[in-house]
Amino acid sequence: MSSMDKAEKVFGLGAESELTPPIRAFRTALMLGQKLRNEMDERLRSDGLTTQQAALITAVKAIGKPSLAEAAAALGSTHQNVAQIVAALQRKELLQVEPDPTDKRRKLLSATNHSASYWRERDAGDFAAVADWFADLSPAELETFCELSERVLARLDHA
After folding, report:
1. Cα–Cα distance between 61 and 89 in angstroms, integer?
2. Structure confidence at residue 158 as a pLDDT band (50, 70, 90)
3. At what angle do helices 21-45 and 3-11 cross, to 10 degrees?
4. For residues 108 and 101, what is the distance between their CA atoms, to the nearest angstrom?
5. Which of 56, 81, 104, 126 is deepest in the core (most CB within 10 A)?
6. pLDDT per residue as tens digits for the range 23-45
7. pLDDT digit string (tens) for 97-115?
8. Could you tell me the end-to-end alpha-carbon distance of the chain, in angstroms, rounded to an integer?
């Protein structure tokens, strides 16, 4: 029995599910998120990184120089959890923490040059792996998948 067959049986997924559509959608999204995170964790493991750490670096680069609180909000995580991730990334020289020049109590995060070169070398392979994970979906299906997922995310943000 494949892992998908097991998941369908245990969580009531699949076309024959007796779950209400919202519960089936929730469980499907939960399983998909877990499987995708596990797959990326496996790709990053040899370099001693996690998907959560990569997500933090992505957020820091996108925001600019966020505070710890801003980075935690972007990840939808706690200040304490993000502080632990930051400490690990500092040890790996992928992230640096500096005092905010306008408020010395606040610390600002930024990606290092080492981080930039590290991701330049890995991005193509990681992007190809992600494309492969979604290869059974057509471009139109991927667009629909993103649009529908983004609508749910937007609703959750306003709940």
Report:
1. 14
2. confident
3. 140
4. 9
5. 56
6. 999 999 999 999 999 999 999 99
7. 999 999 888 999 999 999 9
8. 39
Question: What is d(CA 71, CA 52) in angstroms, rounded to the nearest whole number?
Answer: 12
Question: Any bridge partners for residue 103, and if so which?
Answer: 100
Q: Which residue's entry shows tokens 């190809």?
A: 128
Contact 60, 52 (CB under 8 A): no
Q: What is the 3-state secondary structure (H, E, C) of the chain?
A: CCHHHHHHHHHCCCCCCCCCHHHHHHHHHHHHHHHHHHHHHHHHHCCCCCHHHHHHHHHHHHHCCCEHHHHHHHHCCCHHHHHHHHHHHHHCCCEEEEEECCEEEEEEEEECHHHHHHHHHHHHHHHHHHHHHCCCCCHHHHHHHHHHHHHHHHHHHCC
